[in-house]
Structures are given as structure tokens and as C-alpha cells.
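#lab-general

N.A. 3:47 PM
ok so I finally got the sequence cleaned up, no stray characters, all 177 residues accounted for. can someone with queue access submit it? mine expired

B.Y. 3:52 PM
send it over

N.A. 3:53 PM
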Amino acid sequence: MRSPSSSTGSKSTGSSTAGGTSARFGLSSEARNLHWLLTNLVEEVQGLLSVAVVSSDGLLLLSSDPARNNEQAADNSSGPKGSSADLATIVSGLGSLCIGAAKLMEAGSVKQTVVAMEEGSLFVMSISDGSLLGVHATPDCDMSVVAYHMALFVGRAGHVLTPELRSELRQSMESVR
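B.Y. 4:20 PM
back already:
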């Protein structure tokens, strides 16, 4: 697989799975690469329902929810239950709770949180500077495969998720509302 920056042209792939085509035009190559990584995660891992990258202050930076990434988002602002916007809120709260627990227990930094439920699973993984990757998956997902692919995403995204890039991603998410 090749990322958009590794292709010979600068043309975007246009996949609407994560980061719809219209939202990606005008973004930096780093932002397009993060969209590509998210799209790749969603397409390669069976059982993912929703994926969100959340900043340390709880704002949605990237989303697998096409409604959040397309210009039509304003027409459907409530979104479906379990959408990436809902996931971002849950991930932010759970991340904050786990960080607080780790401090109280003097257990170091939180690497990953997994919540297994009857009807699904929730995975939260630290990226960098307090940013988090959250995944809502089906109950029959292979948890080890989900965690592995999340770790790959984090490893690839962590070093490029600078304050400038987070700001650019925030602005791109706000511009489609």
C-alpha cells in the first residue's frame, strides 16, 4: 500500500470512507497522509464501526464518519447514534478518567484502554501530546487485530501530529459543519 505522498502525483485518492474527498482538498501533505492512514485502518480491519482522533482538549481532529467529513454534514448535524462525534466525546472523557486513575495509582502514562461490552468494544490509545485514537468495534471483532492496527496507526501518526497539524485538522473539521 502506498500513501498519497508516496505516489508520483499529488492527486488525492478520494476515498470517502474516512475524510471525504471534499474535506481533503487544500490540506497539507501531512494532513492528507493522516487521512490516508485513517482510511487504511478502517478498510483493513474487520468490525470497526467508528474511528476518531481526538486532541488533548477533546476536539475531533479526524473521523471515519463520512457525514463529519463531507459538506453535507450541516444537513445532518445530529448524526447517527455512535457516530465519530459521539465517539470523540466518549474517548475524551474516558481518556481523562484513565489519566487521572494512573496518576492516583502512580502507574505512569496510559498506553491503551479497552472496554469490552456485550454489544461492542471500545479501544482508546494514546497518540502524542495527549491526543487519542478511539475505535468503536463490533462485539465479534478480533481485539488483538484491532489493537495491533491501532498501534501501527499511532506509530505512524504520533511523530507528525504537531501542534500546527492539529490546528489544521481542527479547522478542516470545523469548516464542514
